[in-house]
Design goal:
This protein has helices at 14-26, 53-61, 64-69, 109-117, 167-173, 240-252, 254-265, 272-281, 308-311, 317-336, 345-369, 375-380, 385-400, 403-413, and strands at residues 6-10, 31-36, 47-48, 76-80, 86-91, 107-108, 125-128, 132-138, 141-146, 152-155, 157-160, 181-192, 203-209, 213-218, 228-234, 286-293, 299-300, 303-305. The protein is an alpha/beta fold. The protein has 2 domains: 6-71 and 109-181 and 293-369, FAD/NAD(P)-binding domain, CATH 3.50.50.60; 76-104 and 184-291 and 373-413, D-Amino Acid Oxidase, Chain A, domain 2, CATH 3.30.9.30. A 7-stranded mixed beta sheet has the order 5-4-13-14-15-12-16, with helices on both faces. Strand 1 (6-10), helix 1 (14-26) and strand 2 (31-36) form a beta-alpha-beta unit. It is globular, with a radius of gyration of 22 Å. Residues 6-329 form the FAD-binding domain. This is FAD-binding domain-containing protein. InterPro entries: FAD-bd, FAD/NAD-bd_sf, FAD_aromatic-hydroxylase. Keywords: FAD, Flavoprotein, Oxidoreductase. One of its GO terms (molecular function) is FAD binding.
């Protein structure tokens, strides 16, 4: 690429900042602009984990020690009866190649996003309170019109890292953004309490009872005194009334959803009254629907989808965002470093197109293998007393006999480790 690459990234989250960091390493002269719809960096969110190839990438990027320094310290998960009596405890494995429910890299989304964005802040143009309104292919690349400023500018590449409801994805595919969103009939709320409800314990503790209701208390980072709370409501597939009620509350906002949580969780026992009172005092409450994004394509012309915008997967979304950002930058690096100063602009277009196609061919099939169904969620979060009883008996047996530990040890011995994407060696500039 003879001329400095001019890139616009929509979204300042994990996917966009990982991509920007790696692209600048491969192509230091790239001119990168990041637009973020929020008025400031969004450094909140639930705990996320890092698995598979994403672990290799954070090590390669030199941020593993910083990530570990900001982990939640969670060492395992414990399921309780409503009276507080333990049912089962599942510990972390202590290794990154075979991980349990609790990852070796359990970290809050905001802390991880900050680690990545700080590596490029000052090297990119960061614009807040702005989004992409529309775009059109042009002779020089892609002409983008912004929502707030109404200004138009042309870029060599438009990267959509704008989340699972990606406006850019809808424009690229010519469909409503919801057309690629597959809801899993499960709804979640996250918030942090003011006090430490775990009493210093680093084991996540909670209950899961009838009607698909689950409440978990999880440890936070060492620098935080409170407790992270997860409220989950999984509906029976036939329960359209509950789904509609929850969907409406999510759309209406936090106050509506809090009222619904008070209604739905008031009678589950354990520490529900205390947790619901803490919910009212929290200042970081967030609610959402569990969903996956299954886009048939993640690139078209000079527009490319990254992270949740193209391939959100339950439980693996953060790892896919890291992997996608690395691969997209790597494929562009291959093309950038194979260019010569005298190449025509038409060849530059071809090289960008080739990079985007290679990225799609690598990442999209891998992402699809990580996208499960809601069946497992229904099994582990049952609706009926019978279902809860069977689940508790099974979990208790597995925990007592340490079958989970045995299974993971055997898997490791046989080479069945965390699934990884076979990535080529990229010609990074040191």
């Amino acid at each position: 690429m003879a001329q400095p690459l001019k890139v616009l990234i929509s979204g300042s989250g994990i996917a966009g900042s990982v991509f920007a960091t790696n692209l600048l390493r491969a192509y230091p002269t790239a001119a990168i602009t990041i637009v973020e719809r929020s008025p400031a960096l969004r450094l909140t969110g639930a705990a996320v984990d890092i698995r598979g190839s994403a672990v290799d990438i954070i090590k390669w990027m030199g941020v593993e020690s910083e990530v570990r320094a900001h982990t939640t310290r969670e060492s395992g998960m414990q399921l309780l009866h409503a009276n507080g009596k333990p049912i089962a405890t599942f510990g972390a494995t202590g290794r990154s190649d075979v991980q349990a429910l609790t990852s070796e890299y359990e970290i809050f989304r905001g802390a991880l996003a900050k680690i990545f964005i700080e590596r490029v802040r000052g090297r990119v143009k960061l614009v807040f309170d702005e989004t992409v309104s529309s775009f059109e292919p042009s002779a020089d690349g892609v002409a983008v019109t912004f929502t707030r400023s109404k200004q138009a500018e042309t870029y060599d590449l438009l990267v959509a890292a704008d989340g699972y409801n990606s406006h850019i994805r809808g424009l690229m595919l010519g469909t409503p953004p919801s057309a690629q969103v597959h809801e899993e009939n499960a709804y979640v709320a996250y918030f942090t309490t003011k006090d430490d409800l775990l009493g210093g314990s680093d084991v996540a503790t909670g209950i899961s009872t009838t009607l698909g209701r689950a409440m978990y208390l999880r440890p936070t980072a060492a620098s935080t005194s409170g407790t992270s709370v997860l409220l989950m409501k999984v509906n029976a597939k036939s329960d359209t009334a509950a789904r509609d009620k929850l969907s409406t509350a999510v759309r209406e906002g936090n106050e509506s959803y809090k009222q619904l949580m008070e209604e739905m969780f008031a009678d589950i026992g354990w520490r529900a009254p205390e947790v619901l009172r803490e919910m009212r005092q929290s200042d970081d409450f967030y609610c959402s629907v569990f969903a996956q994004v299954r886009s048939p394509s993640i690139q078209s012309g000079r527009v490319v989808l990254l992270g949740d915008a193209g391939y959100l997967a339950l439980g693996y979304g953060t790892s896919l965002a890291i992997i996608g950002g690395y691969v997209l930058a790597g494929e562009l690096a291959k093309q950038a470093l194979s260019s010569t100063a005298g190449e025509a602009s038409s060849t530059q277009k071809e090289k960008i197109s080739a990079a985007l196609k290679a990225y799609e061919d690598l990442v999209l099939p891998f992402a699809k293998t990580q996208q499960g169904t809601s069946g497992l969620m229904q099994l582990v979060t049952p609706q009926t007393r019978l279902g809860v009883g069977v689940r508790n008996a099974l979990f208790g047996l597995v925990s007592t006999l340490k079958l989970d530990r045995m299974g993971m040890a055997i898997s490791a011995k046989l080479g069945f480790t965390e699934k990884k994407l076979a990535m080529p060696e990229y010609p990074w500039v040191e």
